[in-house]
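protien #1 (seq + structre)
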Amino acid sequence: MAPLVRRTWSPCGHRPVLKQRGRHREKVSVAGALWWAPWRTWDEGPLGLVYQTLTDSYFNNERSAAFLEQLMRDIPEGLTVVWDGGQMHKGDPIRQAVERFRPRLVLERLPAYAPMLNPVEPLWSWLKGSRLCNAAPANAVELNRGVRRALNAVRNNPAFLRSVWQGSDLPLPRALLI
């Protein structure tokens, strides 16, 4: 909930002030997936974003499995999920989701300690460092509203999503390079 403080403008002679509540543990957790759909045209946008937020909660393996189910509903074709080895990406709920959606769903793990390969990491950096910097929301509900507003604004913007993907070291699929 504490704002990421960046340089900002203010009237000459007046220091900017960010008012925030202290000593509280409210939070917003976000799960997101950048997807590439080779069957879509450039007019439709072959890249997209699916996300889910939780207010005052966190993503464990059960909620991550539910997010996989949401992906399977939102994306009609086969799906290869590339993600890190976090605890929320392991366990029985994840294995059960993979079994339930086999062969449409395949999981691939990123190498350990390789966030630079994760195309969602530049999205989180943009969100925190650009859209949410210098913001001091009154509570987690207000923070959640700001997160959702920012992600909804870019979720179907192929040029932005392509630049986010290119911000990672994971190569774009060949079809996106031409």
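ok now protien #2
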Amino acid sequence: MKPLVALSFLLISLTVFCQDKDKKAKEATVTLDEKELIRKGNAYYNQQDFTEAEGEYKKALEQNPAYEKANYNLGNAVYQQKKYKEALPMYQIVAKTADKKINKAESFHNMGNTFMKEKQYQQAVEAFKNSLRNNPNDDETRYNLALAQKMLKDQQNQQNKDNKNQQNQNKNQDQNKDQQNKDNKNQDNKNDQNKDKQDQNKDNKDQNKDQQDQNKDKEDQNKDNKDNQDKNKQDQNKDQQQNGQPQPNQLSPQQVKQLLEAMNNEENKTQQKINAKKVKGEKIKQEKDW
């Protein structure tokens, strides 16, 4: 990149012919004090004390805002401090108001440098082209123009690449969103199926419980029926006992009495037979007469 032409413009004579009568009158009224301020600013600039140089140029502009040389040199001083946004208006003023093409060319050239620093390559290209229109033989400006065009092309390619990447990213995001929606839908369906299954299991459980309750009720009913049957049987037996009626598989008192009498009779008969046999078979004892 071409270095700034900081001092060459200072050698240009202040006596110029202007079409603008107001500007001509202002330039003609440059005082020695203003010129002295410019010289002091230039001395600081050569010593690379750009802050002090800036101060001197600003003092000159306070006295004469139309002082072309002060505007240009102030632009150079703030540019060297990397305050590019502050430098640009100074160059624009000179490029607009300067009568000589060489002065316009140098202002446009430094405007191009400022745009390059700000990575505004499209504006830099236009500034360098304007500089060459005013000074076609400036090889340094031509080199800077080629560099700016290359940087602009690279910037555009990068922007296109970034845009493509952004589009791909947006596409991927949309695809991911669609997939997420699909997954969410599948999950919802799965949740619904699980819920239906749980509800079915619950219904089956409730049915089993109802069946168990029915079985229990049936068992209770059977037990109650059995208890009632047993009770009824006991009551029936009790009634039969009270009425003297024999119960099934049970002898009545009369039958018991008859049975006992029969047994006694049999026992008596048997005893009589035994006794008869004893009498019949007993040996007679004979006494001997010794």
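Residues 1-26 have pLDDT under 50 and may be disordered.
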